[in-house]
């Protein structure tokens, strides 16, 4: 694994092997293996049991952790020393409680959680739990740190892309490509796209800057309407009650323009369908909102650097 990812709570012990590896974790030694950047304890240290599926994917990583009751604390000092890596976690069962300072929130089964880098917190579970995690360098998410901080350490909103993301993670738990292969690069790319889409679709709450609220509404509108082939900036402006000129101005300093955001959603959806179905790309392209298969083909090739057929052939894991 490259230096982009450093040890974290349960992060890929398989890094040295470069392939999917399953670890059985028992007692105090098992807890020590998981607590590279903090303190992991249990009411029954000797009775602690866990199973970790660990998959390195270049600068990113995937984990499937099943374990008995635990309490993990990342202190301030350890948080400050962490690499700038964000952890997206899906709670399959059991539920966890997260505490940051005086704030405490429960994250039940079936919900996503973002644990940003360089933040101290306490995470605990009173019983057995299963957690699917993706670890990605923060810089690759292309989101302002303030936005990531606002989304962190609380249950994320349930959005459409979440179920497809969960399905991909479950499949990686069963079978995954070796690191430093074309298949691993494609899988890492898919995980990154889904992570961006999941976070971009989150409601922005009540940001202090009213422009942030408009941007959040734009992202939300695109998420729910990208499959409409008639979706354009003018349609979004009319729906939100703002001028086209203002929308363009609000996205001047953003990583993607509004048109690029629409294309990214469509291409990401198309890529997901290529891996999960046997349908021809022509049908997929029209279903995700491209006006023609030619437009979808060019957009897909520009985004992924390969044809849809190559992506489907190389990307299946």
Which terms would index this structure?
Arc Repressor Mutant, subunit A; Jelly Rolls; single chain; 2 domains; six-stranded antiparallel β-sheet; five-stranded antiparallel β-sheet; 317 residues; alpha+beta; 13 helices; disordered N terminus
Describe the structure in your own words.
By secondary structure, the protein is α+β, with helices and mostly antiparallel strands. The chain has two domains: 13-177, Jelly Rolls (Sandwich), CATH 2.60.120.10; 210-315, Arc Repressor Mutant, subunit A, CATH 1.10.10.60. 43% of the residues lie in helices and 21% in strands. It contains 13 helices and eleven strands. The protein has helices at residues 27-34, 76-81, 138-141, 145-151, 161-174, 182-200, 210-225, 233-240, 244-250, 258-276, 281-287, 293-304, 308-315, and strands at residues 21-26, 39-41, 49-57, 60-67, 70-74, 85-93, 96-100, 103-107, 112-115, 121-125, 129-137. The protein has a six-stranded antiparallel sheet with strand order 1-3-4-11-6-9. Strands 2-5-10-7-8 form a five-stranded antiparallel sheet. A hairpin with a 2-residue loop joins strand 7 (96-100) and strand 8 (103-107). Helix 5 (161-174) packs antiparallel against helix 6 (182-200), helix 6 crosses helix 10 and helix 11 packs across helix 12. The two termini are 19 Å apart.
